[in-house]
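TEACHING EXERCISE
Course module: macromolecular assemblies
Task: Read the component lines below, then compare them to the predicted structure of the full complex.
Student: A.B.
Group: 4
Components provided:
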Amino acid sequence: MTRQETRSASETEALGAELAATLQPGDVVSLSGDLGAGKTTFVRGAARALGVSGPVTSPTFTIGHSYAASGAIKRVTHLDLYRLGSLSDEDPDLLADYLGPDTVAFIEWPAIAERELELLGRSARRVTLSHAGGDSRVVEIQ
Ligand SMILES: Nc1ncnc2c1ncn2[C@@H]1O[C@H](COP(=O)(O)OP(=O)(O)OP(=O)(O)O)[C@@H](O)[C@H]1O
Ligand SMILES: [Mg+2]
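Instructor-supplied answer key:
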């Protein structure tokens, strides 16, 4: 596990880019941490490093966004499960649509889907972000 402190959004994006360099097609990255801790910011840096062009924003009207990437990882998806009450009420393919052998998936607020992700057999990298006063954040990666 690594634990680093960042002092700006761009420093957190840079950590996302560093993690991106270690990812393989099919990987799932879960992101935990309070509102505004920087999860989406981290994903933006990672997505950029994987060749996603254009804005990377928080999913609002859908649970996720899907972006074309470049290289062995062909697609980057970004899910935010914050508003999802329970997966059992949902279409079973809801998550599956955002996962795949050529995809890297980033999942904010993953708790509700932990079991499904396990069942789908995806190896998860875990990122935890915490507020550390002002613009400081602690970023833990395992
Ligand atoms: N060190 C830092 N790292 C990341 N973001 C920072 C940092 N300092 C300030 N910020 C700001 O904090 C905000 C983080 O917002 P972001 O959407 O990334 O959080 P989030 O964890 O995804 O929140 P949510 O749970 O609402 O989706 C941004 O406005 C960003 O510019
Ligand atoms: Mg977010």
